[in-house]
Amino acid sequence: MIARLLRHQAGIKVLALKGTEALAGAAMTIYLARILGPSAFGVFAFGLATIMLLAIPIKNGASTLITKHVAIASERSGAEQAGPLLATGLRLSLLYAGVPMVCLWTAVALSESSNVFVVSVAFFSLALPFLCLTGLMEGVLRGSFRPNAAILVGTVLVPLLVLATAFLLTEQMQAQGWRFAVAVYIAAAIAITVVSLVLSRPYLGNLLPVPKEDRMGGREWLHLVAPFAIVTGLLIFNRQIDTILLGVLAGEKEAGIYRIAAQASVLVTFGVQAIGHLYAPYLATADRSAAPSKISGYLRKSVLFSIAFGLFALVALAVWGDEIITLLAGPEYLAAYPVMLILCAANLAVAANGATMQALYMQGHQKRTAWIFFASGVFSVAANVTLIPYLGINGAAIASSAAILSWSLGLRWLACGVWRLSYLTLSPRDQE
Q1: Are 155 and 236 spatial neighbours (Cβ–Cβ below 8 Å)?
Q2: Is 410 helix (H, G, I), strand (E, B) or coil?
Q3: Alpha carbons 287 and 289: distance in angstroms, whole number
Q4: DSSP tag of 364
Q5: Which of 385, 355, 218 shows the shortest CA–CA distance to 277?
Q6: Residue in 279, 269, 283 with CA at minimum distance from that of residue 311
Q7: How would you write the pLDDT of the chain (432 residues) with one tens digit per residue?
């Protein structure tokens, strides 16, 4: 399957875009860290991490559900639930984005001396409606078997646009600090929302408008979206809570240094992310009766692909990571190097699962998956709160790595139980 995808032009584009995504995110993080300095960048990183958590229910949860139903509708040549889901999602996402915006700006207005972290999140909240809309369009594109376009608007263009603007306006950003950087991010989010709507337009005609008798109520929409929002939300919660707790417990400088390490360590999961985008619509439309053998094939091949990229990234960062950090971010960020290696090693466990997570929630097992992420999230918070006061950024890395290992092993255990697969090889047990 992977060989056929690689020979196909769309598959090559997806892999290239995922590589660009990883590099763009790392480049944006490093360049902003260099020109803003550890403290100002720490405030920026805290606000960005928090707003990404707030965007989860729509940008990740609703988007994943829309991917699933648009893919099913494409296979069966009918809108079915896809149209009503999207129409109600567009309305409720704007309502949802408005709530934290109003609350945050009210808190800033009423406070005589607002906390700098709260102000940062308030500024970032202005991007929330656009992040949500882009997320829904990303789901439409991915479900329409356009993973390249979905990746482009979902995760590639915003960091590239922020990076280009920061490079052109370096002096202004250095002079005005993190507020200017946030303004650039908001402008990029608005621009990419427009691009996502343009790219989705050919597919929206089959989904919208929805006949009055087929419209979906808000309660029904929330019931369908909630499991996906919880699963993806808990995943990102596990990925972002360390930066947030580090900023609260240790300070903005430590949060800025840690963000560099966390961003670099994501390179190890590049293969997992690429295969997840490629396989998502195929996993969604896999026939339940043939699912065990078919999904086993997907998973085993995805693991080989993911591990290959993960090991390459880990070795490269272990050998040249300290030089790269010093050269690109500056010697003041060199403390991120050991933290990066700890997180990279943990992320190899994610690579070893391949597309397991996508298979579970595309096949309807998102509720059981959510419990695994919930347990790991509770453990991550407890471990971070315990270790950060004593070990600082190294404590955050150890706590987060332990949480990553726990949910990775848990997902593999769940997948093997659902489809009766071998825990070591992911082959069907009846074939061993």
Answers
A1: no
A2: helix
A3: 6
A4: T
A5: 355
A6: 269
A7: 444 444 455 556 666 777 677 778 878 888 898 898 888 888 898 899 888 888 888 887 888 888 888 887 776 655 467 888 888 889 899 999 999 899 989 988 887 767 888 899 999 999 999 999 999 999 999 888 787 888 888 888 999 999 999 999 999 999 998 999 999 999 999 999 999 999 999 888 888 888 777 788 888 888 888 777 777 777 777 777 888 888 888 877 888 888 888 888 888 887 787 777 677 667 766 666 556 777 888 888 888 888 988 899 899 999 998 888 888 788 888 888 999 999 999 999 888 888 888 888 777 787 788 888 889 989 999 999 999 999 989 999 999 999 999 989 999 999 898 888 888 888 887 665
Which tokens sit at 416?
A: 């093997």
Long-range pairs of 90-97 with CB within 8 A, sequence gap ≥ 24? 90/133, 90/136, 92/218, 92/221, 92/222, 93/58, 93/62, 93/129, 93/132, 93/133, 93/135, 93/136, 94/129, 94/132, 94/133, 96/57, 96/58, 96/132, 97/58, 97/125, 97/128, 97/129, 97/131, 97/132
Contacts for 160-168 with beta carbons within 8 Å, 24 or more apart?
Answer: 160/20, 160/24, 160/28, 161/188, 161/191, 161/192, 162/28, 162/32, 162/188, 163/24, 163/27, 163/28, 163/31, 166/28, 166/31, 166/32, 166/35, 167/31
Which segments of 38-127 does DSSP mark as H helices, in order?
38-55, 63-76, 82-110, 116-124
Neighbours of 270 (CB within 10 A): 22
Give dist(CA 43, CA 120) in Å, integer.
7
Among candidates 261, 278, 341, 268, which has minimal Cα distance to 306? 268
Owner of token pair 């763009």: 24
| Cα–Cα distance measured from residue 426 to residue 304, given in angstroms and rounded to the nearest whole number | 12
The vertex-39 CA angle with 36 and 40, nearest 5°, equals 40
DSSP H helical ranges for 177-290: 178-204, 218-249, 252-265, 270-284
Q: Return the closest-CA partner of residue 404 out of 344, 317, 355.
A: 344
Q: Per the structure block, which two tokens stand in for 314?
A: 């880990």
Query: Could you give the 3-state DSSP secondary structure of residue 310?
Result: helix
Report the C-alpha gap between 20 and 293 in whole angstroms.
33
Among candidate residues 62, 106, 56, 55, the one with its CA nearest the CA of residue 82: 62
CB 241 within 8 A of CB 255: no
